[in-house]
Amino acid sequence: MKRATLLHLRIPFSFFLLPVFLFAWSIKPYTEWWLLVSTFVILHFLLYPASNGYNSYFDKDEESIGGLKHPPKVSLELYRVALIMDVLALVWGLLINWEFALMLFVYGMVSKAYSHPSVRLKKMPYIGWLAAGIFQGYFTFLMAYMGMHDEGWNALGGWEIQIPAILSTVLLFGSYPMTQVYQHEEDGRRGDETISRKLGILGTFHFTAAAFAVASGGFVYYFVQYYTWTTAFIFLGVLTPVLIFFTNWYFKVRQNVQKADFTHTMQLNLLSSLMFNLFFSGMAAFSLLRLT
Question: What angle do CA 36, 39, 40 make, to 5 degrees?
Fold first, then answer.
């Protein structure tokens, strides 16, 4: 495999999508370890990298993209590797159950539609934003829960599962435009009208802040209803560094719009992912300790 192909798979970028998986695990952490590990590997080492590679092949970015500051030129090998990884994800998913495998297939098709020239959801600011938020949030939460517990769709109807799945999407609705805030020029040259371009740079910050506030309120409600006030306060405390960084960056951008760049975006993504991952993995660990 060429180095360029491996880079475009952006496997480390899966860390930014890990919070949804850990959130799904934290609400019911007791499961068979082979199911947990299989679901984790299928999503983060096959499905997500395949999506990254497939979209990179059709985007042919020349400037920074998520997780890759200087993307190399793509080749047909990248396209083939992405499809092979998709097939491996589906075959492995079938070993768990067919409903989980079907969700993997649907996710893969929607992710391909994001950049494929015949559809290219990236040209549709509102539909693209809805698709990314719903499928990387709500849909992925349910998919991960199904895989790690070998459950069918009939097990997903309870509010104890639906509320966190919805909250995952609300978070993605806010954070997704921020991942596009530094790509306005290149997206414009390609004719891609993303939600961030519609909002404008400062508008993207304002929108993300509002969505984050709504999501935080929803999380507090969820934790108070299904856990404790202490859990809710810990959640808010863990996310305080993210709020401080975001606010600091916002005022820098108000003074100099060039600060809405790749470096700050990746730093925010890394910090927020790290805090969410710590919190949800801590929730899962605490629940497991209580069960033993």
Answer: 85
- Work out the angle between the directed axes of helices 229-238 and 240-255 (0-180°, nearest 10): 40
Give the max Cα distance, the chain: 57
Nearest C-alpha neighbor of 16 from the set 126, 125, 124, 171: 171
Q: Count how many residues are written for the chain.
A: 292
pTM above 0.90, yes or no: yes
Element (H, E) at 6: helix 3-9
Tokens 């919070």 sit at which residue?
19
pLDDT, tens digit only, all 292 positions of the chain: 788 899 999 998 889 999 999 999 999 998 899 999 999 999 999 999 999 999 889 888 777 776 778 888 989 999 999 999 999 999 999 999 999 999 999 999 999 998 888 888 888 889 999 999 999 999 999 999 999 999 999 989 899 999 999 999 999 999 999 988 988 888 787 777 889 999 999 999 999 999 999 999 999 999 999 999 999 999 999 999 999 999 999 999 999 999 999 999 999 999 999 999 999 999 999 888 876 5
Residue 151 gets the label, from left (phi > 0), alpha (psi -120 to 50) or beta, of: beta
Nearest to 172 by CA among 137, 223, 200: 137
Cα 88 to Cα 85: distance, rounded to the nearest angstrom: 5
